[in-house]
Amino acid sequence: MIRLLITGASGFIGRHVLEELSSAGYSILAPMRRPMEFPDRNLYKNVIFLEGKFYSDTLLREYENFNPDMIIHLSAIRGEGRGRWKDYYEVNVLGTKKLVEFALTSQVSRFLYCSTVGIFGTTPSRLPADPWTSANPEGYYHISKYQAEKTIIQQLRGKIPHILFRPTITYGEGDNGFIPRLVKLVRSHMFPLISRDILIHLVSIKTIREFVRKAVQKEALEQDYIVNLADKEPVYLTDLVDLIHKYFTGKPYPRILKISPFLFNLGIQLSKLLKQTSLQISLQLVSQPWYYDTSHLENLCDCTLKDSLKEVHELLKKMYPSHAAKSS
Fold first, then answer.
1. Which domains does the chain have, with CATH numbers?
2. pTM: predicted TM-score of the whole model, two decimal places
3. Are 225 and 299 in contact (CB under 8 A)?
């Protein structure tokens, strides 16, 4: 039985990946800060849960005893405004470096790393951004993820086959991020919808689950891979907002609530001056286009890319079954 070391299994993506690979029958070691709080942990009969920081010397010794065949590295401090640079650097960069060193010492057969499309910047320099679009990370989180990428490539190239996958903003069951927040703002008529059409690109957690499983199952890697993970096509932000509003009210989002690009640009410039990186990124996400080239994914595995609007509508029906308007 193939043995997998999975870091970050308590996060949104991690929980789904753990469920996918556990149900496929793999033997799994899952380090996490508070394993006793992990939901339904007793149902995972083929998973060993460890308590502690994934890069601690104590856990690294436990990894040696487990002797994993592959490493799936999902753990990270996420988002902006949640810590000092020192914290991001310790976990996302130095922690990754320690895991890479362990991979080299133990000679694992494969190393999978979950990065982020944020390494291109909130708005990439080229659209759609492909894996080789120039990096321009903003904020502690994206800068630290980019530095971790460089560490992996520099140390593992030619030694251990590795896959760097960069999901865009992810949605699905159990998520408390972009879509739930968007729903809350749209329902309360507090979402600042820009008055021009912009394309954005999301990814379903179903795609990430399928991708990781197929990346593990792939018999041989002829090369190292860097891929973007996103849905089949980008969508217009207006269409997404209208979909949500129609689900609850049967009507599109009120056009009177639209805001001009000038005001967004003013807000972005002010947030830059005030060094409010989190606010700056939030404003850019809802006023500037961001979408990605996923064609290189076909060279690695054949994944079923999703239709964002259809998937979000199905998600709304699961999250808010009693709130749908009659027309929904």
1. 3-175+201-232+291-306 (3.40.50.720)
2. 0.95
3. yes
Instruction: Report the sign of the C-alpha dihedral through residues 121, 156, 71, 296, in that order.
Output: positive
Give, in order, the Cα–Cα distances in Å from 79 to each of 187, 231, 246, 270.
Answer: 24, 21, 30, 20
**Closest CA relative to residue 297, chosen from 133, 181, 63, 131:** 131
User: Which H or E run contains 36?
Assistant: none
- For 249, the 3-state DSSP assignment is helix
pLDDT in tens, the chain (328 residues): 899 999 999 999 999 999 999 999 999 999 999 998 888 888 899 999 999 999 999 999 999 999 999 999 999 998 766 679 999 999 999 999 999 999 999 999 999 999 999 999 999 999 999 999 999 999 899 999 999 999 999 999 999 999 999 999 999 999 999 999 999 999 999 999 999 999 999 999 999 999 999 999 998 888 899 999 999 999 999 999 999 999 999 999 999 999 999 999 999 999 999 988 889 999 999 999 999 999 988 888 889 999 999 999 999 999 999 887 765 5
- Which DSSP symbol is given to 292? B
Residue/partner pairs of 298-301 with CB below 8 Å, 24 or more apart: 299/225, 300/163, 300/214, 300/215, 300/218, 300/225, 300/227, 301/211, 301/214, 301/215, 301/218
What are the phi and psi torsion angles at 235 (to 5°)? -130, 155
Residues 6+ apart with CB under 8 A from 120: 129, 133, 134, 135, 136, 137
Residue type, 262: F
Phi first, then psi, for residue 37 (nearest 5°) are -90, -5
